Amino acid sequence: MRRTSSRIPDLKTRKRPYPYATLEELSNTVLHHHAVDAIPFVPALMEGLDARPWQDPREFFRFPTSRQWCEAVRRLAAELGANPQVGQISLEPRVQAFIIYAWNEYGVGGILAPTRGDKYMKLVQLRRAIGR
Question: Kind and range of the H or E element at 111?
Fold first, then answer.
């Protein structure tokens, strides 16, 4: 069954999660689509999406491994450096930023906060990836 969603591109609904790489690829598609907008676009980095605890029928994705998360942050940071329209939130002086979705959206899988399973992995890898 295929359906259209304004929140998630039209992926085939299935019983097993999509890989994290698919979620990152979807985010990158949005980023590249908006990179040419007249208004600067601030991208979002997704650390997961799985709303099954809320009986949400949308597609769901595996959570990233430590390596995948670090590489996703690094790739997004590189996009900021390579494209002047991406992540610009101030005209002068120029400040680049991206959004991480979200700190503690446990019910939909946007979890940056420490958890029993991942502990501080996402925070450690975020710091490692951006060097601050």
Answer: strand 110-111
